Amino acid sequence: MIVVGICGSPRQGATDYALKAFVPVYIVPSDYREGIMYTKLPDGQDMKLRIRKEDTENVRKLEKMEGVSVLENPQEICEVFEKWFGHVQA
Fold first, then answer.
1. Dihedral angle at the C-alpha atoms of 71, 73, 79, 85, nearest 10 degrees?
2. 7 found inside a domain
3. Residue 26: helix, strand or coil by DSSP?
4. Number of domains into which the chain is organized
């Protein structure tokens, strides 16, 4: 978990090294707000998820980390691309 400096997966390790190399990191966490949410499984079924207070607290910690930008929803990714690469067609 990048918030506490533990990198247990290749993705977390890449994020950690990007931050150490002054490369900006953008994250779209599924745990942005506490409560119940639903997601689709690959077979099309719905899966109910509980987003806990602890999960959202970690997102708030990420927001405070230098070099990390937390996006609330995937649609904001287009704005990031426009910032770095100019106009992007969706």
1. 80
2. no
3. strand
4. 1
